[in-house]
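ugh ok so i messed up the first submission bc i forgot one of the chains. this is the corrected input, ALL of the components this time, i swear. 414 residues overall. if the numbers dont match what u have on ur side tell me asap before i send this to the collaborators (the ones from the other lab, u know who)
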Amino acid sequence: MIKIPTSTLKRLPQYLEVLRQLKRAGLKEVSATKISVFADVHPTLVRKDLSFANVETSPKSGYKVSELYAAIEKLLNWNDTSTSFLVGVGHLGSALLGYQEFNQKGLSIVAGFDNDPGLIGSVVHGVPVYSALDFTAMAIKDNIQIGIITVPPESAQLIADIMVHSGIRAIWNFTPHKIIVPPNIIVEYVDMFASLAVLSRRLAERE
Amino acid sequence: MIKIPTSTLKRLPQYLEVLRQLKRAGLKEVSATKISVFADVHPTLVRKDLSFANVETSPKSGYKVSELYAAIEKLLNWNDTSTSFLVGVGHLGSALLGYQEFNQKGLSIVAGFDNDPGLIGSVVHGVPVYSALDFTAMAIKDNIQIGIITVPPESAQLIADIMVHSGIRAIWNFTPHKIIVPPNIIVEYVDMFASLAVLSRRLAERE
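and heres the new structure output, hopefully the right one now
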């Protein structure tokens, strides 16, 4: 499978979102230029990104919306479902357990883990919560590949270590703590605070 | 106020996190090299980024942890509190209303807005929820500068329009929908799906 550049991968969901809205509006075909306008990405980049999808495009009518949508989903492996475990069922963790959007993006969170006795044994948005002590046994048994970390930042490394030890191959880290893992483990961050930092500073700069 | 590059701003919260953990461990001084290791950022970049903080550093003992922490907080305006309104009190919106971390980062979400009659009038994690119809009057009255969007993507543009109309100057958009606003409005995205796209693809590439 060819390696797609990270910058392209990060833009693909935007194109999907544009295509989804075009589909809802009943459009069957779309040009790269139109996608470029809606996604607010330079047309040259759009063409480069979409070339990975390997779908037909005509100079006259552009891409077929449904075909391009399906091709991008396939590139991201979002047409398939990966099961995952989440550790840290606080406010953010609970929200992610209930986040329906993930199911359309190939991610199914099948269990939550916490060390709060008040949470263990409960069901949050339809997902059962277990003791963090059971993580390893359950992850190995179910051959879970993706681990989601929503604990406080100071516990992130410990949870990452447990995940690696449990056969997890990709970690989605929602804490700002940089975790150290073996090079074969994939790590991605959702860094809200990086984004908030830009927002706060730009606002202050304009005052 | 000088304009700090976006790439630097995005790294500053990581340094804060490192410094917070050093403070907890009782350390008083730290070198740029040590920060570089913990934050997993190249030492040259660390030095460049920290130069914006304008604090003393000695070749022998490095930075004073508390002083550097306070200086970075000030750069980000996180020592001050900005009030904000959030629109869309679903799973994610509710989680953000309860997210204590924001208070330490200068952000106070003082009201939530939704169009669900079951939510209007309720209090979520201590924050009152109002009708979306009341947004403009309340935002103008309280001179709110920051608006947070956690509605479904197809409603993001409408909410952004209402926010701009209500005097909001910075929009924190948690949907993947690219919103179109006047150039004087600051927009930042928390794009979970961009991050999930990279994670999903990299995992598929290794299979």
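quick check: Chain A touches chain B through 68 residues (CB under 8 Å). that seems consistent at least. The mean pLDDT of chain A is 94.
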